[in-house]
Design goal:
13 strands; 424 residues; five-stranded parallel beta sheet; six-stranded parallel beta sheet; alpha/beta
Length: 424
């Protein structure tokens, strides 16, 4: 297959798939497919609700079309799968979206076609879980009549500096020839360059350890912050002092959520356990990070008690619900852990976030956000996400939302130390 003969389809148009489809759509014909018809309707109207792509960028993708009908894929010969890979309530990988996408592609898969997966998985998932579905539905034979590749996504939601084209892309293929085709395809849009892995499993493993490494580093800093809190010293001051050494890594404590860091390690630990190895360090880091919501709520309650603020029946304002600043992404946000833990203390919690879609918040977490906080109404305020709107408000305006006696807890080091009562 020559590059000029590629007819491309992007399966899944979320935070990963849409920016990729837009970049390819500037230069070649692309079908953007998603099962969410509302999403397709909005994109056809020229607007991206995730805010990853602005209206002007959408308009510039002259060769990109959108569809929720699988029949729109029948003329395509290269499919890139960018659907999410979440975990279930037991922290086990949920490959349902990936396998459903594979079924959809299998219905139109033809001899010579190539399927490239970008979704984060454990090493072996592409060939051991996805390929059998493609074979079963299409009736074709892997590596004889169709082929696969893997090129892990590296999208950072809300980041306007590190975009899909400016981040080095790892590529791989099920044969050397397919690996070269996949590498050249991505190389046509990735200005930062590509790295061709020796096989698909290496590319899969590279992706899953990127975020596992970050998860463990943050877990270490979270544990240190709990130790320093008991000693009575400020974590940020310690980190600033340690950071004067050239090779000290600049991580900060916090809630670890989102579609990657709080999820990907469970894919690796699942695979490890399936081959008889119990991963102690990775799971220890996960336990620390998963417990941070409980720790935050406990520290706030202690501070309230020290100030003789009644806990039972208190009102607390949580500012921010997204998993990171300046984006509307609610996936796997761990701010919800803080909210739920505070409710266990019979505290009334108001959540305010100017970035989120209220209907999505209600559907995903049962949290109905307020549009505007009430002045002088709160016994405590938790600055949970460092949105630029909150930074602009400053400590004085934020404190104006609290009662005459209240606690201001800054989880993101958004405000100067002297202007808050608690920090992680």
């Amino acid at each position: 297959m020559e590059q000029e003969n590629i007819k491309l389809a992007i399966i899944g148009l979320g935070y990963v798939g849409l920016p990729l489809a837009v970049e390819f759509g500037k230069y070649r014909s692309v079908v953007g497919f998603d099962i969410n018809k509302q999403r397709i309707d909005a994109l056809n109207q020229g607007h991206d609700s995730t805010l990853e792509v602005d209206d002007q960028e959408l308009a510039e993708a002259k060769h990109l079309s959108f569809s929720a009908e699988h029949t729109s894929l029948k003329d395509c010969n290269v499919y890139i799968v960018t659907v999410p890979t979440p975990i279930d309530e037991h922290k086990r990988p949920d490959l349902t979206p990936l396998l459903k996408a594979s079924e959809t592609i299998g219905q139109t898969l033809k001899k010579g076609d190539v399927v490239i997966y970008e979704s984060t998985v454990y090493p072996g998932a592409t060939e051991e879980d996805c390929v059998p579905v493609l074979e079963k539905v299409s009736g074709l034979t892997f590596n004889e009549e169709f082929f696969v590749g893997y090129s892990p996504e590296r999208i950072n939601p809300g980041d306007k500096e590190h975009r899909v084209t400016t981040i080095t892309k790892v590529t791989s293929g099920s044969t050397p020839e397919i690996a070269e085709l996949v590498d050249k395809l991505y190389g046509s849009i990735i200005t930062a360059g590509t790295h061709k892995a020796s096989c698909i499993k290496v590319a899969e493993a590279a992706k899953v350890i990127e975020n596992t490494q970050r998860d463990l580093n943050i877990a270490l800093i979270n544990e240190l912050s709990m130790i320093f809190n008991r000693i009575g010293i400020d974590t940020e001051e310690v980190l600033q002092a340690a950071g004067t050494k050239w090779n000290f890594l600049p991580f900060r404590p916090g809630l670890v959520g989102g579609h990657c860091i709080g999820v990907d390690p469970y894919y690796l630990t699942h695979k490890a356990q399936s081959i008889g190895y119990h991963p102690e360090v990775i799971l220890a880091g996960r336990r620390i990070n998963d417990g941070m919501g409980r720790h935050v709520a406990s520290e706030l309650v202690k501070a309230m008690l020290h100030r003789c603020i009644q806990v039972n029946g208190a009102r607390v304002l949580v500012m921010g619900l997204t998993f990171k600043e300046n984006c509307p992404d609610l996936r796997n946000t761990r701010v919800v852990d803080v909210v739920n833990e505070l409710k266990e203390y019979k505290i009334a919690v108001d959540v305010h976030d100017p970035w989120i879609n209220a209907a999505e918040s209600e559907h995903e977490y049962g949290i109905t956000p307020i549009e505007e906080p009430e002045q002088g109404a709160y016994d405590a305020i938790i600055l949970a996400v460092g949105h630029h709107q909150f930074k602009t408000m400053g400590a004085q305006d934020i404190r104006g939302l609290g009662k005459s006696e209240h606690i201001l807890y800054d989880l993101k080091y958004t405000l100067p130390k002297a202007e808050v009562d608690l920090r992680l």
